[in-house]
From TrEMBL, chain A:
Protein name listed in UniProt: Imidazole glycerol phosphate synthase subunit HisF
Organism: Ancylomarina salipaludis
EC number: 4.3.2.10
Keywords for the protein's UniProt record, in alphabetical order: Amino-acid biosynthesis, Cytoplasm, Histidine biosynthesis, Lyase
Enzyme class: lyase
GO cellular component terms, semicolon-separated: cytoplasm
GO molecular function (one): lyase activity
Family statement: Belongs to the HisA/HisF family.
Catalytic activity: 5-[(5-phospho-1-deoxy-D-ribulos-1-ylimino)methylamino]-1-(5-phospho-beta-D-ribosyl)imidazole-4-carboxamide + L-glutamine = D-erythro-1-(imidazol-4-yl)glycerol 3-phosphate + 5-amino-1-(5-phospho-beta-D-ribosyl)imidazole-4-carboxamide + L-glutamate + H(+)
Gene assigned in the entry: hisF
Predominant place of localization: cytoplasm
Domain of life: Bacteria
Entry function: IGPS catalyzes the conversion of PRFAR and glutamine to IGP, AICAR and glutamate. The HisF subunit catalyzes the cyclization activity that produces IGP and AICAR from PRFAR using the ammonia provided by the HisH subunit.
Quaternary structure (record): Heterodimer of HisH and HisF.
Annotated compartments: Cytoplasm
Length: 251, 198
């Protein structure tokens, strides 16, 4: 049976992992290469590296970090942040990443999704979306949640899928950093509407939240950062917990 | 130490993540050369035929370089991975593409009964042959694909997603995995090691 994936996210700034609370108040949480290796050994199914300052400061993701990670890691990993062209993607994939995640650049120029899917295949194109709910309307935000777009979340996800996205990484800004659980209602609606895998992001605080994201939220994978970095949740324990709750996981 | 002396060539046809395969072999202590040179490929002890991307585009690349003629002639063990495995079949529904014809079956599009691509960790079972020596049935390996090869006489491992399909094929010196051993953790490393030991 296809397993539900547990994905630690390593937010990268200046070559170090950090995690913000609601995207502000950054703390250093370690060396990405060492963390990546440790997570793979603990049973993480995949890793995501997001250069969270890249778009904002117009910095490119550090290719040498990608290469170092690719050399030690035996599981797939995705790199995002500051990617806005086929050339950016070619370099990151060549350095050894399996997938890339695009966010703001795809909203600004949706053709980018089509171009990447045609050149590299949909399987390596993850469209990441930051959205906030106000009065039951989900709106897409840009630049790590700094800029509202006026675009409806559902409309954007449908377009992303149509243009060849291979996977959606959905972060609820209402839930991110709260540790009160994922945006399960929205996740379930998205998961039923699109026919590509959905990664839940934002809100993990305890093991039960992951189970809920898979059952109530119908997500295919769940991503979290600080609960893993600060060892509030250990991946082997989490997977045992999920298995006991009849959720298929790779142990 | 014996493994280090092997001359392994990863076929370069501009399709996908060759580097991952090279790194996976390096982790096993084996240096591999990435090449599209006929002589280099012919002289290799083992050949790996990877592939990520679109079938019609990939076959076009193979034809341009004459690799479509070379690969079926190889006598040493050859391991096709993912798209590499699908291209080793007679035909793929992806772009209605004629393949290398090493396995007399077609790669078909998954029906849209569940999410496509089939992406993530899934279990392999009914394991047969040297590639899976020491590998336990129900082990998890990593898949990313939208087309599948049905079960057939050359199936050496099965997986279930929407339907049961071939996770691995073998005929004579031609081996193939639909999953990515280079990205399948310790299990994948063990499968690659089995290939190196052939």
């Amino acid at each position: 049976m296809l397993a539900k994936r547990i994905i630690p996210c390593l937010d990268i700034k200046d070559g170090r992992t950090v995690k913000g609370i609601n995207f502000v108040g950054l703390k250093d949480a370690g060396d990405p290469v060492e963390l990546a290796k440790a997570y793979a050994e603990q049973g993480a199914d995949e890793l995501v590296f997001l250069d969270i300052t890249a778009t904002h400061e117009k910095r490119k993701t550090l290719l040498d970090m990608v290469e170092k990670v690719a050399k030690v890691l035996t599981i797939p990993f995705t790199v995002g942040g500051g990617i806005s062209s086929c050339e950016d993607v070619a370099q990151i994939l060549k350095a050894g990443a399996d997938k890339i995640a695009i966010n703001s650049s795809a909203v600004r120029r949706p053709e980018l999704i089509t171009e990447l899917a045609n050149r590299f295949g949909s399987q390596c194109v993850v469209v990441a979306v930051d959205a906030r709910e106000t009065n039951e309307n989900w709106e897409v935000y840009l630049n790590g949640g700094r800029i509202p777009t006026g675009i409806k979340l559902i409309d954007w996800l449908k377009e992303a899928e149509k243009r060849g996205a291979g996977e959606i990484l959905f972060t609820s800004m209402n839930h991110d950093g709260t540790k009160n659980g994922f945006a399960n209602k929205a996740l379930a609606e998205i998961s039923e509407m699109i026919n590509i895998p959905l990664i839940a992001s934002g809100g993990a605080g305890e093991m039960r939240h992951f189970a809920d994201a898979f059952t109530e939220g119908k997500a295919d994978a769940a991503l979290a950062a600080s609960v893993f970095h600060y060892k509030e949740i250990e991946i082997p324990e989490l997977k045992t917990f999920l298995e006991k709750n009849q959720i298929p996981v790779r142990i | 130490m014996l493994m280090k002396k092997q001359n392994i060539v990863i076929i370069d046809y501009e399709a996908g993540n060759l580097q991952s395969v090279k790194y996976a072999l390096e982790r096993l202590g084996v240096n591999a050369e990435v090449s599209n040179c006929e002589k280099t490929i012919r002289q290799a002890d083992k050949v790996i035929f990877p592939g990520v991307g679109e079938a019609a585009w990939a076959m076009k690349k193979l034809r341009e370089t004459g690799l479509d003629q070379l690969i079926p002639q190889l006598k040493q063990p050859v391991l096709g991975i993912c798209l590499g495995m699908q291209l080793m079949c007679a035909r793929s529904e992806e772009g209605d593409t004629k393949g290398l014809g090493l396995f007399p079956v077609d790669a078909l599009k998954f029906p849209a009964e569940d999410k496509v691509p089939h992406m993530g960790w899934n279990q392999i079972k009914q394991l047969k042959g040297k590639l899976f020596e020491g590998i336990k049935a129900e082990s998890y390996v990593y898949f990313v694909h939208s087309y599948y090869v049905p079960l057939n006489a050359y199936t050496r491992a099965e997986t279930d997603y929407i339907k049961a399909f071939s996770a691995s094929l073998q005929k004579d010196n031609f081996y193939a995995c639909q999953f990515h051993p280079e990205k399948s953790g310790d299990i994948g490393q063990a499968i690659l090691k089995n290939f190196i030991k052939l």
